[in-house]
Amino acid sequence: MRLGTTWRIISAHVHSPRRFHLAILLLILAATTVSFSPTLSGRKQFTNWDDPGYVTAQPLVRSLAPANLRAIFSPDSDVVLNYHPITVLSLAFDYWRGGLDVRVYATTNLVLHLANTLLVFLFLQRLTDGRFVVSALSALWFGIHPVHAESVAWISARKELLYTLFFVASCHAYLGYLAAGGAGRLALSFCLFVLSCLSKATAVPLPLVLVLLDFLRGRKPSTRMVLEKIPFLAVSIVVGVL
Description:
Blueprint: H1 3-12, H2 17-35, H3 51-56, H4 66-73, H5 85-98, H6 102-127, H7 132-144, H8 149-153, H9 158-180, H10 183-197, H11 206-216, H12 223-241
């Protein structure tokens, strides 16, 4: 019996499919939490690989004062030869909450990974027009996959989690724009893209991903499609230069 058929049979015996889907989603998040729970161990420590540059010996994370916030966002204040002020700001917030208690930073990393797992589910729900099985299995695989061990366990990899958060959210918002239109949805996608770029420059290819989403939604090439992407491309170029 195929998996999809089995899933429909199970769902048919549940009083409320919506509650059933919510329960499955909560189980996925729980499984993800259990998979990465060792990062919250009392034996957890900062590493000597980039953690001094990002946290333990980084003066930019020691204060949330206005002057320091301006320094965080200044292009002249690179951190480990990178410009990612949103990442540095999040680390500064953790320092404000817990000083150099590594478990505070590890908890934030885990929460961000859980948020990314949820976003992957929501994005695929919209991309596949509500195919719950595909979305749920993909989110589960994304959540528990060991390839994310470095991003979650290594405090200096916070940038990976943050840029992914805003990157997927931007794609999700863009799909909403393709479905219902509205300049506000396109502007939201753009703002999330900017936040993704300010978390890690790896986000700069997102305009190409938006073109792929256009293709998947059957949009025909037009001047409007090109004009929509110009602000995204401009940000990609600026961030690349920085």
